[in-house]
What does this fold into?
Amino acid sequence: IYKFKTNQSLGKSDPGFRSASAINASKDLCLVSIQNMNCHKNLFSKLKKNKKSILFLGNSQMGAINEFESGDLSFISLLSKNLQSKKSNFLIKGLWLPNANLKEFELINQTLNRCSISTELLIIPVFLDDTRINNIRNELDDYQYLLCQKQKSHNFKVSNNLSNIQKMNQNIEKRFSIFEDLKYLNERFRIDIYQFRNNLFNIKPTSVRNIKKPIYNENIKALENIVNLRDKQNLKTIVYIPPLLNSVNGGLIPYKRKDYINFKKEISTICNSQNCIYFNFENEVPTDLWGLKKSTNLKKNKMELDFMHFTGKGHKVLADKFFEVLEIHSQIN
It folds into this structure.
């Protein structure tokens, strides 16, 4: 019952995904894509029928498992399985997008409203890294129309959500005329260029990622819009800071410590109503349950830390933590 389709092709277009197995579709979890519409229609149908529903939104931390082993499940599937074993009436589902940003989550929440779906609880992770992106990807174009057969919405300007390698391509094209036609080069060579860039500028997994304030503010506003809308509807929202490698042991993280602390404070203040609950889970997954990924520079045989994806055992730890939370805040038993 809990078999799912995995796809490692995402690593071909974005080296940051390498070594993690992505869950395209399971009975509990859907990757947002046009090719996955059957999974989504089934998921939305079940959410609509079950008033005691809990929907998780997420990025590849939800939808991918590092160093995948047979039998590993996403924390969403583990949580769903646990609830079913206790004969709970609650329905657990998850939607995920690689590098998902909060503006995209807002669009998904609007889709729920337009499809007349009122999930009792919506759970949203807020990654500082994902506040550096503000574009709505093509996979969400016509999302509401395809799922709800509603009139197309023009509230959002839809454009490509650029992956790391796409952003790198654009920067190179701007700076070096010889690479004007980089978009026509084969995929393998693009990855080689990406790795060359990282090697040349000594970019590592622990390299600090600066906040892009205008884009950051747009994402924060999107989160506020979700929370405020659900509060008006008297629907609960959980907003959480997700697990982060090295947060527990004081090791290197890919942000300035001051920026990260201020970010957490700001997110916590957004949950200022009785219908919004804030949690900080940054320390929940122990360091030894995170994985490595193939090098994203020219050192082919070297493995790098993966700050986004943990192992199947890490997913088990997070599933157990969420079960504790839901027992208290949703009366799932």
